[in-house]
Amino acid sequence: MRRLFWLAMGVTIGALLVRKMSRAAERMTPAGVGASIAEGLRDLADAIGAFGADVREAMAEREAEIRAGTGLDAPLPEGGPAQLPRRGAHAAD
């Protein structure tokens, strides 16, 4: 009975090792390496896209802060836009 147990244990461990080794060998083939590189590039593209979205969001927030601080979005006073005095060589025209 003991020998049968150890035989079954050896067969099980051997099968697991063969499966692990064949997976590792498959990853080392050109197709496996290519798939690994492709997955890495997809992850990099996702990270760059997320970074770009974060930057655009922060830019929009900052622009809103600047516009609010400078009054660029404030309504014009009644009577239309103010006329600035003319300066320079063409002021006499």
> What letter string, H or E per element, gives the SSE order?
HH
Biggest β-sheet, characterized? none
Instruction: Specify the structural class.
Output: mainly alpha
Alpha-carbon distance between the two ends: 116 Å
Mean model confidence by pLDDT: 86
**Total helical elements:** 2
Low-confidence stretches: none
The number of E-state strands comes to 0
Kindly describe this structure.
With 93 residues, this protein is mainly alpha-helical. The protein has a domain at 30-71. 72% of the residues lie in helices and 0% in strands. It is built from two helices and no strands. The longest helix is centred in the middle third of the chain and has 41 residues, at 30-70. The mean pLDDT is 86.
Spell out the blueprint of helices and strands:
Layout: H1 2-27, H2 30-70
Which characteristics define this entry?
2 helices; 93 residues; mainly alpha
Quick take:
With 93 residues, the chain is mainly alpha-helical. The protein has helices at 2-27, 30-70.
